[in-house]
Amino acid sequence: MSLSQDSLKRKLRQLKRLEFAIRFKDRPAPENPCLVWDSYFSTKRADAPGIKYPLARLSQLDEAGRQRAFEDYCASVYFQYFTENGLTTMGLLDPQLLALLGLPAYASVAEIKKRYRELAKRYHPDHGGNKEKFIELLNAYETLTQD
Questions:
Q1: DSSP one-letter string for 16-79
Q2: Domains of the chain by range and CATH?
Q3: Over the stretch 85-121, which tens digit does the pLDDT of each residue have?
């Protein structure tokens, strides 16, 4: 089902309000809060660089694709909330690191290992790959798989 741009903007504004409700329910919001929403979405037609799911891209996704984008965002919001409030993040994986590997926020350890091996083959410097990218992937993999 295709959403109109206006409907999509309303949905994105709802997600922004949801982030405020989750992250600032127990304390007042700072004057200029740094929201996870700001790096994920934009309601402007001319999309700024650094936005993970610009409006134009979201409007082209099918229902399942938009659902994955929203799940990815929600996982990042809860990860941020847990981090800010000193709650244990044991069992939670950093969605930013998972995104670096091209994985969804709910990826399993087996999926992480499989994806890492695929990317390691591609970016390993001994096989003509990018050394910096390989090191970045290795650090992400080690962080995600440590006990």
A1: HHHHHHHHTSSSPPPSS---THHHH---SSSPPTT-SS-HHHHHHS-HHHHHHHHHHHHHHHHH
A2: 5-84 (no CATH), 95-145 (1.10.287.110)
A3: 877 555 678 888 888 898 887 788 889 999 999 999 9
Other CB atoms within 10 A of residue 88 CB? 7
pLDDT tens for 28-50 read 778 888 899 999 998 886 667 78
Q: Which residues contact 64 (CB under 8 A, 6 or more apart)?
A: none
* Closest to 98 measured CA to CA, from 121, 81, 75: 75
Q: Is 19 exposed, middle or buried (0-12, 13-18, 19+ CB in 10 A)?
A: buried
Single out the residue of 11, 104, 1, 5 nearest to residue 52, CA to CA: 104
Give the model confidence (pLDDT) of 50-96 as tens digits.
888 888 888 889 999 999 899 889 988 988 888 888 775 556 788 88
The pLDDT of residue 138 is 92
